[in-house]
Amino acid sequence: MIQPLSCPVCSKQLDPAADSQTSPFCSDRCRRVDFFRWWDGRYAIVEELAPGGALTDPDLLDAQESMPPDEI
Ligand SMILES: [Zn+2]
Description:
Blueprint: H1 28-49, H2 58-65
């Protein structure tokens, strides 16, 4: 099965014979962009699960304050 390779980051058409080191990306730059995208998502998940991480999240602090402590 032969399918045209394209960079997942910038969708640029790839020459399979060009540079296998950056595959499946067109360049080292796009490879890093993809890595940092992945890292961003991973980091968000880790922070969400970390018990102390919520302290620095203004949204979560807001939600806690708006919750009535004694009602129901
Ligand atoms: Zn690219």
